[in-house]
Amino acid sequence: MLEKDHIMDKRIIRRNIDRGRLTQAQYDAHLASLPDVEDKAVAQTIEVRSGEFEVVVPEPVEE
After folding, report:
1. Three-state DSSP class for 32?
2. Under 8 Å between Cβ of 45 and 56
3. Greater confidence, 43 or 35?
4. Hey, where are the domains in the chain?
5. What SS3 class is residue 54?
6. pTM of the predicted model, to two decimals?
7. What is the spatial distance between Cα 2 and Cα 46, in angstroms, rounded to a whole number?
């Protein structure tokens, strides 16, 4: 059997469910068990001008 990290890889989760390697209930339980890290997220802005991309990254806030 594949390692848990490989079974739960979000890029192939649908395939693993379709092939019976994982149930939707198991996947839902896995998602529910993940910690909430929303407070650690940093908003970023991407501006597109004349086909060029500019990524604006705010300075990190020291806590």
Report:
1. helix
2. yes
3. 35
4. 4-56
5. strand
6. 0.53
7. 37
